[in-house]
């Protein structure tokens, strides 16, 4: 289940992609299959191990094109183990809402992106998330849980403060919003027939991608899509002017 639109991310073969808070690797897998050099990062040891195993399986099955590379690292989003200006694309999907100092995390994203690079950030959408918080404290008030609810304007403002330029945005996973409302109403740790039935619907949608549910989600995403996705770019490096040009001779510009 992908949240990020890879066409809007403008991901091409050979690009270096950093997947932050990769979880069990869903976005890293797709980037790898598209021919990217992937670095999947998470703090959880179990998540790192699972992602590494699945990336290895994808490579062994020949699902990644020649030249694609993949690695997994355990790391902190507030101090990324990646050099300055070294990656073409960053994915930060459903992770910033867990981090107290999210502004520092966005600054780290800006640091590691190459000039002209792009980031895709997804967070829970304000409306559906507010319903979940109203129905259940246990949904978010736990160790490692959600500590804030973003409005779209806040995401854009914080990205801009970090030196990035927000652009496209969209919503995703409308069919998942009612599922979580139901879970929160019943009790996040509890289960009943309605929850199980809805979960079977989501699994059916994920595995079969039928026209009915795909159309329904596409129509409902702008209204109740559970995730907000915002794309932002790091400005290109400014052109430098050669000494000859400064002296008033033939102007020559070179990329920094």
From TrEMBL:
SUPFAM superfamilies (alphabetical): S-adenosyl-L-methionine-dependent methyltransferases
Superkingdom per UniProt: Bacteria
GO biological process, one term: methylation
Domain Methyltransferase type stretches: 18-120
Keyword Ribonucleoprotein assigned: no
UniProt-recorded Gene Ontology molecular function terms: S-adenosylmethionine-dependent methyltransferase activity
Alphabetic keyword roster: Methyltransferase, Transferase
Any one Pfam family match given in the protein's UniProt record, by short name: Methyltransf_11
Keyword Repressor set for record: no
PANTHER family: PUTATIVE (AFU_ORTHOLOGUE AFUA_2G14390)-RELATED, TRANS-ACONITATE 2-METHYLTRANSFERASE-RELATED
Protein's recorded name: Class I SAM-dependent methyltransferase
Lineage: Bacteria, Bacillati, Actinomycetota, Actinomycetes, Geodermatophilales
């Amino acid at each position: 289940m992908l949240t990020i639109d890879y066409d809007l991310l403008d991901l091409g073969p050979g690009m270096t992609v950093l997947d932050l808070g990769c979880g069990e690797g869903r976005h890293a897998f797709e980037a790898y299959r598209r021919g990217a050099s992937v670095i999947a990062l998470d703090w959880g040891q179990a998540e790192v191990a699972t992602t590494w195993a699945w990336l290895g399986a994808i490579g062994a099955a020949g699902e990644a094109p020649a030249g694609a590379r993949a690695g997994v690292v355990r790391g902190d989003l507030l101090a990324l183990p990646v050099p300055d200006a070294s990656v073409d694309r960053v994915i930060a999907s459903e992770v910033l809402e867990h981090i107290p100092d999210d502004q520092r995390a966005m600054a780290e994203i800006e640091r590691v992106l190459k000039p002209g690079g792009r980031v895709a950030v997804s967070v829970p959408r304000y409306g559906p998330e507010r319903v979940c918080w109203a129905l259940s404290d246990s949904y978010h008030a736990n160790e490692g849980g959600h500590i804030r609810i973003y409005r779209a304007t806040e995401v854009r403002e914080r990205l801009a403060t970090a030196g990035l330029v927000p652009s496209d945005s969209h919503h995703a996973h409308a069919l998942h919003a009612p599922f979580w409302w139901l879970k929160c109403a019943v009790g996040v740790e509890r289960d009943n027939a309605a929850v199980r039935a809805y979960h079977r619907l989501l699994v059916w949608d994920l595995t079969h991608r039928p026209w009915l549910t795909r159309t329904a989600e596409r129509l409902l995403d702008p209204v109740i899509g559970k995730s907000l996705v915002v794309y932002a770019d790091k400005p290109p490096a400014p052109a430098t002017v050669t000494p000859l040009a400064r002296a008033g001779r033939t102007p020559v510009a070179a990329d920094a």
